Amino acid sequence: MGGNGKHRWIFSFYQRSNSSSSPKQSKTQPPHEFLCPISGSLMFDPVVIPSGQSFDRISIQVCRDLGFTPTLQDGSTPDFSTIIPNLAIKTTILAWCRDHHAQDPAPPDYSSVEKIVLSKIQEQTPSRLTSGPDIRVSERELLKAVAENPPVLFSHAVTEIGPSVNGRLLCSTSTSSSSDESVIVTASSPYTPLPLSTRPACFSASGSSSSSTEITLSETPNLKSQSSSSLEEQELVLKLKSSDIFEQETGLVLLRKITRTKEEARISLCSPRLLSALRSLITSRYSVVQTNAIASLVNLSLEKSSKVVIVRSGFVPLLIDALKAGSSEAQEHAAGALFSLALEDENKMAIGVLGALQPLLHALRSVSERTQHDSALALYHLSLIQSNRVKLVKLGAVSTLLSMVKSGDSASRVLLVLCNLAACPEGKSAMLDANAVAILVGMLRESELVCKATRENCVAALFALSHGSMRFKGLAKEARAVEVLKEVEERGSERAKDKAKRILQMMRDRKEDEDDEIDWEAALESGGLSRTRYRVGKDDFAANSTDF
C-alpha cells in the first residue's frame, strides 16, 4: 500500500507539474513582415517575387487563377510571374512561433483565401465588376504588362553599338575615386575594422564630360525651360519608350547626366513610370543602351529613399543577368548597383534570396578593378545578416575567399566578408576546417608585403574566429600565432593592437582553465564525489551525492 501510495503521489505531482508548465498561447502580435500582404495571415509557405516581397504561395495561386493583380498598401503592384521559396523567412517564422509559444502557421484553405481576394477585387474595381466579366480586367492588365515588360531574355550582349553618328552618344566614365562619404562599422558587425564607402566605384560625382558626350541640356530646350519635374519626367519617358534606338540612347545619356549632377532629380525621377521604362532597356541587346540604363539606375539608387523602391520594382534579377553576361562596363555598373542597393537593410534578404550571391562571388575575379571592388563591398553588406552568411557558406565561399587572400587578390576587401562569415557558427566551422588560422597568420608574417588595411583585417578575422571556439587555440598553436600576435601588439596600428591583445589574453585564460581542470576519472574511482568541493576553472563546483 505504501509503495502504491508513493507511486500515486509521484504520478499526480508529475501531472500537476506538466499542467502548470504547459506553454501558454502568446498574445504577442507577429511582426508585419511575417504576414502575407494579401491574406493578412501568418505565412505557411512563403515565396519571394522579383521585387523582393514575400507572399504565401496559396495567395499568389488564387490571384493567378482569378487573373487578378492586387494593389498593395504602398501603391505597388506585384509581379507574380516568378516565385522563389523563401526558406529564410519560413525558418524565422517557425522560430518566432516557438519562442513565443504560438502555434505554427496552418495550411491556408483555398476557399477562404479566394473570398479575401474576391473582396479585394471588388474594392479595387467596383465599376468594372458591374460592367463586364472579371477576365476582361486581367486581359487588359496582361496586355499592358507585356507592352511595358517585353519578355526579352539574353545570355550575352553580342551586338555592341560603336560610336553613333559623329560619335556623339558615347558617354565617358570618369575614373576618379568614389565619394568621400563613408560609413563607420557599428556594433552590428564588431569584427570589421574599416570605414567603407557608401557609393559604388563606377559612380562619378564630377560634372566633367569628354568631347564624346555632346548631348547637353542646351540641346533639349524644352527640358531646360520647363521648371516642372513632371514635364521633365514625361520628356525622358517618351525618349526611353521610343522604338528608335537613337532616341533611347539620347534619353539615357540625358538621364544619366541629370541624375549624376542633380541630387534632387534622383528623387523626383525615381517614379514608377520612369522605372518601368528603364527596366525594359536593361535587357537591351545593344550594349550602349544596356550600359547607360544600368549607370542611370546606379545614380538613382544613391538616394536612401529610392533603394527599396528600386528593388521592389524588380530590377535585381535584371542586374544579376547583366553581371553574368553583360559587357565589361555593364558588369561594372551592375556590381555597383547591387552594392548601392545592399546598403539598405530592408533589401539585404531579398537580394540574397533572388540569387545575387553566386554571381557576386564570381565577379570578385573579374578583370575590372571596379567590378571587384563593388562586388566585394556588396558581399560585405549582404553578409551582415545571418541568412546570407549561411547561403555563402553553402555556396563554398570560404574556400574561394581564402584562396584569394593567399594569392593577394583584393585581400583587404575579401577579408571584410570573411570577418562577417567568422561571426556565425557555420562560417566559423568552415573557416577552421579550411585552415584559415594558418593562412591568416601567414599573411601577418609577411608584414612587409601586406598593406596596413590587410593586416588589420587579418587580425580582425582571427579575433572573430577565436570567440567561442575550443579549436582555435590548438590551430593557433600549430600556426605559431602567439609570436606573430605579440609583434602586432607591439608594432601594429591601434585597432590591430587592441584585437591582438584580446586574442592573446583569451588564449592565456584558456590555458589557466585547462591547468585548473580536475581528473574526473580519478575522482570517480576514489569515490570522492560525495559532499566534496572541487575547483573547476575559476568557479567552485559542489557535487553532493543524493539517494533516491
UniProtKB/TrEMBL annotation:
It is an enzyme of class 2 (transferase). Its EC number is 2.3.2.27. Residues 29-103 form the U-box domain. Gene3D superfamilies: Leucine-rich Repeat Variant, Zinc/RING finger domain, C3HC4 (zinc finger). Pathway: Protein modification; protein ubiquitination. One of its GO terms (biological process) is protein ubiquitination. InterPro entries: ARM-like, ARM-type_fold, Armadillo, Ubox_domain, Znf_RING/FYVE/PHD. SUPFAM superfamilies: ARM repeat (SSF48371), RING/U-box (SSF57850). The keyword Transferase applies. Functions as an E3 ubiquitin ligase. This is RING-type E3 ubiquitin transferase. It comes from Gossypium anomalum.
